[in-house]
Amino acid sequence: MEPMTLRAVGLCAGIPTQKGEIRAVNDVSIDVPAGSIVGIVGESGCGKSMTARAIMGLMRSPARMTGGEIWLNGRDIARLPERQRRALRGSEMSMIFQEPMTSLNPVMKVGRQVAEAVRLHANVSRQEADRRAVEMFEAVGISDAASRARCYPHQLSGGLRQRVMIAMAMVCRPKLLIADEPTTALDVTVEAQILRLMRNLCDAGTSILLISHNLGVIAQLCDYVYVMYAGRIVEQAGVIKLFDHPAHPYTRGLLNAVSSLRRGGERLDTINGVVPNLLRLPEGCSFSLRCDACEARCAQEMPELREIAPGHKARCHLAEREAWS
Amino acid sequence: MKQSLLRRFIQAVIVLLGVALMIFIMLRVVPGNPVATMMGEHADIDTIQRMTAELGLDQPIHVQFARYVLDALRGDFGTSYSMGKPVSQLMAAAFGNTLALAVAAALFAWVVGIACGIVAAVRKNGLLDHLFMGFSLLGVSMPVFMVAMLLQYVFAYHLHWLPISGVDSWKGYILPAIALGWNSAGSVARLVRSTLLDVLQQDYIDTARAKGRGQPGILVLHALRNAMLPVMTMMAMQLSSLLSGAVITETVFSINGIGRLAVQAISGRDIPLLQGTALFTTLVVVLGNLLADSLYAVLDPRIRREA
Amino acid sequence: MRLNRQRQIVEAHDIRLESQIGEAERFGDLMRRMARENRLAMVSALVILLFILGAVFAPLLSPYSASEMDMLHRLSPPGAGHLLGTDEGGRDILSRMLYGSRVSLLVGVVPTLLSMALGAALGMLAGFAGGWIDALVMRLADIMLALPSMLLAMVIMYTLGDGLINVFLTLSLVNWASVARIVRSQTLSLKKSEYVEAARVIGVKRPVILLRHILPNCLPTLIVLFTLNVPAAILTESSLSFLGLGVQPPNASWGLMVNVGRQYLYNAPWLSFVPSAAIMLIVLAFNFLGDGLRDVLDPHLKNN
Amino acid sequence: MAHRFANRSRRMARQAAFMLAALLFAAVLPCSAEAAEDGLLRAAILYDISTMDVAKTTDNYMIPMNVFDRLFETRMVDGTAQVVNSLCEDCSVSEDGLTYSFTLKDGVVFSNGSALTASDVQYSFERLLIAASENTDIPLEVVGGEALMNGEADALEGFNVKDDTHFSVTLNAPNAGFMAELSAPAMSIVDAETMAQVENFGSEPADTIGTGPYIVTEWVANDHYTLVANDRYWGEAPSVKKVIVRVIPDAGTQNLMFQNGELDIIDLQNLDSAIVESAYKPVYGDRIVSTPKVGLTYLTFNEKKDYLSDVNVRRAVGMAIDVDAIITGIYSGNAIREYGIIPTGIWAHNDALTGIEYDPEGAKALLREAGYAEGEISFELSMDSAADSNAQLVYQYISQFLDAVGIKANIKSYDHSAWINLRMSGEMDSFLARWGMDYNDPANIMFTFFGNERNTAQRSLNYPDAATMARVAAASAIVDDAGREAEYQALEQKIIGEDAAWFPLFEELHLYCLGERVAEFIPHWAGFSDFYAADVTLK
Question: Which end of chain B is more exposed for a tag (fewer CB within 10 A), N or C?
Fold first, then answer.
């Protein structure tokens, strides 16, 4: 097995409320092999962002990780004390967010914000850190990097700001980059540039865990994909196999919603119903209420995430039949 | 920047003239003859009328105002009716004490206020949060004289640690500064907590954490600077109100400050002293706000062109 | 298949119902949610209600007449006869507190709200409009901050009379400037944020932007300023009474009782402590209620 | 690498905490009140004096009394206030009571060495009429005073100097109280030569030169002033060598400083009588000195206003007020009941005089007979918010008494200037005030309030009876004492007994408390807060 940058096993996270514990992430296991780009896709609220934050250890209180192991480059970092866990952030693993507009400190020059990442993890002088920051700006394709470094966030466009975020994340050469909806807030042309940049980073040796609800981005960039629904992984497979032979009705529903655009004209296929309330999940399969192929068994018994083909798992009793057709 | 400073200077002069004029008009509306008050119970009407004429108080208002402004430009702020001394001399002596007291009170207020505000925000709804917010509300709702007298009673009278009254030594400033600063500390703590809580929800805080910055670093380098803008405005106003004197604290600790002079001037309708203290307060307020406005740009680059 | 179909219809039906009830029910729901989640806010609302009831039913509740002087029991400590003791004139402090709360609660809340409204409006206008409007409003604020407030109070009294309305007017005029400056400073940074510029781009009229976008973000600061200005207003009212504006002896307000109690602080401290404690209690109540409201209304804090 | 950064901040925090603790500890070293040097008397006043020039004040008398002398002084001699010689060695009055011939004490010098001469006395009289002075009424009694004041003359005609130590003064009209008036602080003697050279007499200590037992060495506005014994003093050297009077504007602070041994004398009138009863009498009983504050606390009726113009209403108000309850309740017994105009301690005071007694039912009956319905009568009790706490309590107590008989007395507070302004305009309905006697003569109060139509209007009394007021003015001129005393007492009976023009309440006692370092203290004869430092003997 090629070396694994990230192995998350049985990740669980939840939000305590008066009405009980919301299990936002429920027994999620994700592997990110070195040098590959792995995607997590699902409707908003399915727990994909929470999973990413759990891995980085950036849970927003009162949400908290309740179980599971996180192996980063062969070391379980889940139980590390905060001080050591913090030392990893920015150096071994880093993260970029969806909203470039508000993800940068408005009152600090962008160059300094990137240099800060350097000084946090490398014992170098301020000038050296600034130099590396400017160098990183050029690496992520920011023209006239030196003067741009002296600007403030509100003086830069959305695309530029996202490049700054990427520069900040990559400046310490982390092994793993987690990107939570990196291009959602950008227009298509800028999105393409950012995706190309991420592909280059991957080729340069950084594995990427991409979180997105956009199947197009996933298809274009990822090698392997996990589909999440209501806090659980319902299907995982190589990108080609997933798009050609979706085994789980939910995945098929997602793909139909996108593919119908190509057929042009008719009404969009939608998955009827709404994402269920995590506090009152139905018995059995969480997707049962919205699943067309729902049978009595689905309503009573939660299906296992079974291997239905090499490297292809699905959490559905009827998964095998679907795979062949 | 220079152009806007010139504009602000002109506006400051207008404000000074505005306040001086309004005070003259106000004194016309409000009953009370300074000479009668100054001469007390035993004076009779003839003497009062004679003295009023001598001081030129029976002149029409615009004449008095014009004469006052011309004298002021020459640096002669007139002689106080009730104190018999030149206003500028009285103000100079009193301002020394008020400045020292204001600086001491502001330091105490802001150090304690910001510290409590941060801890209360970080430990939101924890024990410390309620404790500090309780203290700050205690500070805001307890009248200043009560804080001053209790401090004086316990630390000066009973424990003899500090002098009961008078500021001949620097130790004399400790209790008044705490009494005066206590209320401001409460307000600053409340506002810092509220704005900090707001800022800590922002996305760039997550980015900082993602970079591996620890909580203290995040607080000082990222959160506080963004949270300080409204707080700094409040602090600028607190400083100018401290600098325009704190009559109650000055009274309890027998400090000859601008606050007592101002109150004496109003209740005695001592026009020259009243004008002197009011113009001084205006200067302090205008400079304080000018300082605050120009610091905005330093603190928040988005406003750089605006301020 | 049919089993499933019926279930889906029922679910769809629920969704439609919820959206129709809409706004009205939502506020009630917010209040219930606040009640459930924030007990402190509910207790505070109760305390405020108690104070209001105390003020309204003062004649029924007070054991003695508020101005009946009984010099034999002068300055007697809280005890059997008088629950909260008697003041320098031998009058029952509990009765005076109940009657005094009428003025003090009004004086604490009404002018503070007025000055907040005026200050917030002018502050937002100044911050948002900039240019000469900003200069005009801010210099007006400078003048108000610089003018001696006692002189201003006397001018209002001798021109408009000494009724309670003029006490409100005086306190509002004195307090709006500080609120305006703080709201202006916040507006300056808020107006640069993306959603405000987005709103401007699609042609939203300026007052709507101020009300719908800027004001909600100033809410936390305004609530804090409110809880800071209420006690200040109650205490300042007493200095107005000395000038003849507002409450006149033998009536009393909390502020007046606190200040008159000053001379007896060493041998009859309850004269000042009782009204001061009441002011503290009412301020605590407003503070926690304000926090509760802010947590419920503020979108940011909704998720935790 | 990351840890190094964390360590450094932790180390810095530890150092800061250590420094803070050291600083706090240094500040906390106990500092006891510095021991007072012997011969020093430490006193305190609530409000700073406004001037040292006696011409420009009618109440700041501490410096004039200690730094200057007068021709005569009023001293307590075996229980009564007597006019005794001071700078004047001997004085004789002409038959018609108009001309007074004086012999000055010889060899007296001012504190700067300049000799005291008769021309200095003349200058002191004339100065009160030329400079912007407040005390013109006494020198105006001298012939030519009016002319000098109006600039028609350049010297006081009625004042002629025979030689350095002899001069005579001729009055426009005989005034038996003239010698008493010359003992008033306003008639302090200044040095003509010095006054010609200095510009800041009265505001600069160095320029304020007198012949008194002390010289003023320091005056810091709103902070303190210092008196030091005058080694050139003509009289007996005082026991107190140095006096520091500090401005302590808060009575509570004065109380703490006294009990902490930082003050040698405290004026108890600034503290509420309840505090004096509970904190001072039980603890310092023997060291409390009490003397009548020679003067009168009175309630006025403005006879121009409706209801108050009716004598029955005025009498009913008097009958409704229980003055003894006020004296015991609010002043804890530290006051003497008064029934007339001339207060206890002043010549011609009539001990036998009785007045309106407390009779609420009688008051109601009187009002009914006079045709007033219950609660019909109402007037304003105007209160000066600067009045001391006891007075403000009396206002409320009186309002309650009047309410009991159906009279609505609504209290309204005024700030000090506004109150004086309203009173002098003659429009104030009714108010409570205290008149302190300046010198021991009935005219000082009788003439001021009922001397003429303008005086009584200026005090918002508006007493209508012009004939009686004429008699009051004339009474000053009666030469023989017995006749003058009888006239004043008859006038008192008419104005108060019959017309009830005002309602006299009491004469307060003035209480002082002495620190351990003070052996004996003789207060001012009229109970002023200001005192002769020479009358204090230290242990």
Answer: N
Query: D502 and D524 share a domain?
Result: no
Asked whether residue D235 is assigned to any structural domain, the reply reads yes
Other beta carbons less than 10 A from residue A232's beta carbon: 22
- Asked if residue D204 has pLDDT above 80, the reply is yes
Q: Which residues contact A18 (CB under 8 A, 6 or more apart)?
A: C36, C37
DSSP state of B270: -
Euclidean distance between CA atoms A80 and A74, whole angstroms? 14
Instruction: Return phi, psi of residue C265, to 5°.
Output: -60, -30
Map tokens 């219950």 to a residue. D374
Q: What three-state secondary structure class fits D48?
A: coil
CB pairs under 8 A between A and C: 29
Sort out which chain A residues have CB atoms less than 8 A from B226's CB and list them. Answer: 105-107
The angle formed by the CA atoms of residues B281, B286 and B291, to the nearest 5 degrees, is: 125
Domains and CATH numbers, chain A: 4-92+174-314 (3.40.50.300), 100-173 (no CATH)
How confident is the prediction for chain B on average, in pLDDT?
87
Structural domain of residue D187, as residue ranges? 54-195
User: What counts of helices (H) and strands (E) characterise chain C?
Assistant: 12, 0
Please state which CATH class domain B88-306 belongs to.
Answer: mainly alpha
- The average pLDDT across A214-225 equals 89
Is any Cβ of chain C less than 8 angstroms from the Cβ of B274? yes
In a domain, D207, yes or no: no
CA distances (Å), origin A252, targets A227, A233, A238, A316, B156: 11, 15, 15, 12, 81
Give the pairing type, strands A306-309 and D40-45: unpaired
Of A102, A273, A299, the CB nearest to C8: A273
- Least confident among B70-74, C167-171, D254-258: B70-74
- For helices B127-141 and B174-200, give the axis angle rounded to 10 degrees: 130
- CB contact (8 A) between residue A121 and residue D4: no
Cβ atoms A324, A311 nearer than 8 A: no
Give the number of beta-carbon pairs within 8 Å between C and D: 76
Q: Could you tell me if residue D204 is inside a domain?
A: no
Q: Give the separation between CA B176 and CA B253, rounded to whole angstroms.
A: 7
Could you tell me if C60 lies within 8 Å of chain A, comparing CB atoms? Answer: no
Q: At which residue do the structure tokens 């999440």 appear?
A: A228
How far away is chain B from the Cα of A101, in angstroms, using its nearest Cα? 9
CB-based burial label for B180 (10 Å; 0-12, 13-18, 19+): buried
DSSP string, D189-204: ---HHHHHH-S-TTTS
Q: Are residues D353 and D469 in the same domain?
A: yes
Amino acid identity, position B186: G
Within this chain, do residues D158 and D280 fall inside the same structural domain, yes or no?
Answer: no
Domain CATH code at residue D497: 3.10.105.10
Q: In the structure encoding, which two tokens stand for residue D186, read together? A: 């306003």
Reading phi first (left if > 0) and then psi (alpha if -120 to 50, else beta), residue D79 is in left
- The span from the CA of B101 to the CA of B252, in Å, is 13
Q: What is the pLDDT of residue B2?
A: 74
Q: Which parts of chain B are beta strand (E)?
A: none
d(CA C184, CA C214): 10
The phi and psi torsions of D382 (rounded to 5 degrees) equal -90, 125
Sign of torsion, CA C60 C61 C67 C68? positive
Residue D50: pLDDT band with limits 50, 70, 90? confident
Question: Dihedral sign, CA of B58, B60, B64, B65?
Answer: positive
Instruction: Report the C-alpha gap between D167 and D116 in whole angstroms.
Output: 13
Q: Which domains does chain C have, with CATH numbers?
A: 2-58+88-303 (1.10.3720.10)
Q: End of a domain among D167, D195, D223?
A: D195
Dist. CA D508–CA D525, nearest whole Å: 14
Q: What is the ipTM of this complex?
A: 0.79
